[in-house]
Amino acid sequence: MEFLHSIEVGIYDVILEILKNKFNEKPDDWWYRGIPEMLRKKAAELSEETRGSIPKEQGFYLLSYKVIIESNWKLFATYFDPDNAGKNEAMQWMLDLNELRNKLSHPLRLRQSPLTEDDYAFIKQRKHFIDALCREILPPKN
Predict the structure, then answer these.
(1) Which pLDDT score, from 0 to 100, does residue 141 have?
(2) Using CA atoms, how far apart are residues 16 and 20, in angstroms rounded to an integer?
(3) Model-level pTM?
(4) H-type helices in the chain, by residue range?
(5) 127 SS3 class
(6) Cα dihedral 23/24/29/35 (nearest 10)
(7) What is the pLDDT of residues 68-126, one digit of tens each?
(8) What's the pLDDT score for residue 109?
(9) Best CA proximity match to 15, nearest among 1, 37, 35, 32
């Protein structure tokens, strides 16, 4: 589960860094120009429901990131499709990862269908992929 958290946080950080660098004329440009309206509304609604304890820019789910990336494919293709497989094929891993994440979040599903060695290898491979993107894109931490 720790690897999954790390992957999700890494994706979030990479997306925000790229969007904020591209859409930076005004402080909120990245939000309005880079995040699809339906996701902005859901995130803002979640923020309101939690009385702001979840800031709107953190009101996303794993599959939200897939939608953001696909909606801004020209910005993200270099990073998320290095083999030029095409958007659908290149982003399939996020659907697969979400399935594993859901399984891990629901113990009865996990009991019925435990993770396999291949599942663990896939998660580890995706973590390495996202860690490499973070090293490439994010500014160094002091």
Answers:
(1) 78
(2) 6
(3) 0.91
(4) 2-22, 29-34, 37-49, 62-71, 73-80, 87-105, 107-112, 117-137
(5) helix
(6) 40
(7) 999 999 999 999 999 999 999 999 999 999 999 999 888 888 888 899 999 999 999 99
(8) 82
(9) 35
Are 44 and 59 spatial neighbours (Cβ–Cβ below 8 Å)? Answer: yes
Provide the residue type at 98 as one letter.
N
pLDDT of residue 28: 92
Q: Taking the CA of residue 61 as centre, how many other CA atoms within 13 Å lie in the half-sphere pointing to its CB?
A: 11
> For residues 4 and 1, what is the distance between their CA atoms, to the nearest angstrom?
5
* Cα gap 46→58, rounded to integer Å: 9
The per-residue pLDDT for 89 is 95
Q: What is the DSSP letter of 26?
A: S
Give the span between the Cα atoms of 77 and 87, in whole angstroms.
8
The 8 Å CB, 24+ separation contacts for 55-60 are 56/31, 57/16, 57/31, 58/12, 60/12
Q: How many CB atoms lie under 10 A from the CB of residue 120?
A: 12
Query: Structure tokens of 31?
Result: 């939000």
